[in-house]
Structures are given as C-alpha cells and as structure tokens.
Amino acid sequence: MQQLTGMDAMFLHTEMDGFPMHIGGVSIYDQSKVPGGKVRFKGILSLFEKRMRRSPIFRRKLMEVPMGLDQPYWIDDPKFDLEYHVRHIALPQPGDWRQLCIQVARLHAQPLDMAHPLWQIYVIEGLNNVEGVPKGSFALYVKVHHAAMDGATGVHFFAAFNDMEPNPPEENVLDWVIQPTPSKSRMLGKAYLNNLRKPKQFYDLIRNALPARQRLREGKEEERFSSLDDKEATRFNRGVSNHRVVEAKKFDFEDVRAIKNSVPGATINDAVLTIIGGAMRRYLDSKGELPDSSMVAGCPIDVRDEAEAEAGGNMIGLMNVALRTDIEDALDRLQAVHDEANRSKAYAEALGPRIGMDIADTVPGGIISSVMRLSVAAGMAEKNIMQNTIVTNVPGSPFQLYLCGAELIDSFGIGVLAPGMGLFHTVTSAVMNKQGTIIIAAVSCREIMPDPEFYAECLQASFDELL
Fold first, then answer.
1. Which of 244, 275, 291, 429 has a 20 to 30 Å separation from 367 between CA atoms?
2. What are 406-446's pLDDT values in tens digits?
3. At residue 384, does pLDDT exceed 70?
C-alpha cells in the first residue's frame, strides 16, 4: 500500500459536482501501415494486459482511512477488470474534427468512479473526415485522476503503452501478486503517528514562511518582481457549469522557435504564452469584454529535484505570469511577456516553489475540502481571482511513437476546470509524424465559451500575427 501525499489528496478533497479532478489526453494514430491495415480492439486490450506492470496507476484504487483521520491509501484492486477501463466507441458520420472534440468534451465532463482504479481509456474510431488525418485512423482518449499523477508523471504513464518502434519485442504476461489490503487498525495506528507530527509540521511551515515574506518584501522594494495581486475578472472567471468544450491547434516547432528568436533571450514558453495571450485578447475583444489591465496565467512548475525525478504523484508549484494582453502590438507583447516571465520566476523563487506542497501536507484534507465548498457556495471563487487561465506544459516524446504498430500523428492534453477558473490550456511538444510540433489545447465550459471553434481561430490568428 502507498499513502497519498497532501498534494495528491488535495485533488480528491477539492472534487465536487461539476468539477471532476481528472486530467486527460487525446492521441490520434494512423494505422494504414499496420499489417492488414487494421488494429484490432482485442490487440489493444492484449497490449494493455501486458503493460500493466509498467505503472502502478493501472491496478490500484483508493482506500479511505476510517473517519477521515488521515490521507487515503492506494491499494491493489482484487476485482480489477481491464475491459471496464478500456472501452471502444465510434464517432457518428461524417466523423470530423468538431465531432471528435464534442465527443471528447462529453467524456471529459464525466467523473471517474472512486470504487475502481482511477483511469479510463476510450478507443475512438470513425475519424474519416478529420482534416490532415488519414482515413481509417483512430484516437485514444485517456483520463486519469489528478490524485494519481501530474503532467510529469503522465509522461511515464503514456510511455507505458506506446513504443518507439512499430514492432517491439513481445512481452509475456506476468502473474499479478495482489498485495494484502491493510487492516483498519493498521491505518488508524499510522494515522495516530502522522497526526502526532502535525504540530511540528505547522511550526516548520510558519518558520519557512517568515523568511519568504521578508524576501518578497525586499523584492518588491527593489522592483525585481511584482506579485500580480490585482487581477481583473473576465468571462473565464465566471461560474463553471457541468458541460465542457475542447479545442486544439497544432503548430510547427521550428515556426515557434522563429517567433521566440525575434526577441533576444526569449524562450519557447514565452512565445507560447504570447500566442495564448493574443488569442484570449482577440476572443474577448470580439465580445466587447477586453479588460484594460493585463490578464494573468497560472503556470504549474515541476518542483522535483534530481533524487525525485522518478517519483510518482503530484509535485508541482504554481507561477503567475502576466500575459500583457493590454499591449496590442504582437512583437511588443512578446518582449513584455519575456520580461514578465523573468520577474515571475524571481517571485516564485523568493516565495519558495514547494510552499504549496508544504501547505497541502500540513493542513488536514477535511479543512481544505470545507474551505473549497464554502468559497463556492459564497461565490468567493469568482470574486477573488487568482488567475485568468492556467497554462501547463506537458513534454511529449522526442521520438516517433507507435501503438500496436499504428503511428502517432497527433497528441494533446486536457486539463481540469475549477471554481472561478473556466479556461485551461495544455501545451504539448513532441515529435509526431516525423516532425517537431507544438499543440495548444484548450478546455472550457460550454456557457463560458459557446464557440470553441472560434477560439481555435483566435489561436491560429495570434500565431500567424507573431510569425
């Protein structure tokens, strides 16, 4: 058994009706070069059966501590059923891009069943009229609860069922040895010991926070950074419904590199943030809702050190970056975003990148859950704006990948929405279809963004303007 960390459990405690806390991804495969031109669903099931041992996520489920006295545990599921988790569906004709996005959005809006291992995969056929996708291709929609992994862990999970060659060596199915389920008395005993440590954890948290406060005050006085405390609410910060919309745009990596090279010292991340900021600016301006001040993006950062590089679960901090949507000229905006990103990095370092993890490990989950529900009921999440959107980077494979011999030609991630946070961007960079690509995907709420295809046009227009 393995106990969840405070940050892992936080995604369980904050899940509410209409706010499922799973992350997802869509991958599209060309099966035209597979012998016989067809990957069978049974072949995909067989592949997953052989790959179960590559990730503990596949077979483990949650077990709560009695009376919620401590964080839950991951335990082996003795009734694991592979065909419950891997499912087979098809798009209605004509099977175009919009239909794929609608289907994925519907699946993404449905919460996972906490009684089972917290993942599902849908094999989606019928992609016969998706522009740029060969006829007969199929997609995989994958969703995994955020409690089980973050973006960095997701890369390893994705690698568990993809190969770097179309015909990898055969793997034998190994017998699965079920680990015994812990007794209630054992969990209560460990909960007692863990709770004895809480006073020291509170003390250490406060002790570490005091120097951080001093560093922040000194940084503001020296104007090395700004904390971006004042943010203007937009439609993306309104109440979020149960319905989701999904869209994505693919760009050539070398074109994005050319954009970032137009400003000395700028990074690929700076260029991507500028593309997204330009799209948000265009979208809101078309609605007559463009704020006077800059919109702000929250950017998750991996805080693992070298010793934790292979650690599972969630180890993330958050950095706020001004998107400078108050600047009309695209090149001037890129320069400003680059400057803002440097100041934001300095702010995150002064605050301490692991402070969020320390808080999650120290504050009891029941308190986090109660505060979240109270803030939603009181409408506080829409009033106290933390960010206008979230932008996370998910590094893909630098090599061409295959599934059962089918070639991966497109792949993008899908994030989570939260109260007061109705727009989430996932940026995926990888080698697909033999070339470097960057895909920017957005998930939102149907009431907040009723026209996701127009937002995709805004992303493209912002990119074109910069290029």
1. 244
2. 999 999 999 999 988 999 999 999 887 678 999 999 999 99
3. no
CA-based diameter of the chain, in Å?
Answer: 68
The secondary element (H helix, E strand) that includes residue 419 is: none
- Give Cα 173 distance to the centre of its chain: 31
5 secondary structure, DSSP code: P
Are 238 and 418 contacting, i.e. CB atoms less than 8 angstroms apart? no
Q: What is the pLDDT of residues 160-203, one digit of tens each?
A: 899 999 988 887 776 777 888 888 888 899 888 888 888 887 77
The DSSP string of 19-63 is: B--EEEEEEEEE-TTSGGG---HHHHHHHHHHHGGG-TTTTEEEE
DSSP string for residues in 189-243: HHHHHHHHTHHHHHHHHHHHHHHHHHHHHHHHHTTS----------GGGS---S-
CB 72 within 8 A of CB 96: no
Measured CA to CA, the distance from residue 122 to residue 103 in angstroms comes to 11
Q: In what order do the strands lie in the sheet with 296-302?
A: 244-252, 435-445, 423-432, 389-395, 296-302, 316-322
CA angle, residues 228, 229, 230, in degrees to nearest 5: 95
Whether residue 209 has pLDDT greater than 90: no
Neighbouring CB atoms inside 10 A of 327's CB total 19
Asked whether residue 150 carries a pLDDT value surpassing 80, the answer given is no
pLDDT at 353: 64
Residue 448 DSSP one-character state: T
Classified as helix, coil or strand, 393 is: strand
Give yes or no for a contact between 74 and 56, defined as CB atoms under 8 angstroms apart: yes
119-125, strands of its sheet edge to edge: 86-90, 119-125, 138-145, 22-30, 406-414, 402-403
Dist. CA 391–CA 423, nearest whole Å:
9
What is the rounded CA–CA span in Å between residue 341 and residue 328? 18
- The confidence band for 308, taking pLDDT boundaries of 50, 70 and 90, is low
Res 151: pLDDT: 63
Return the CA Rg of the chain. 23
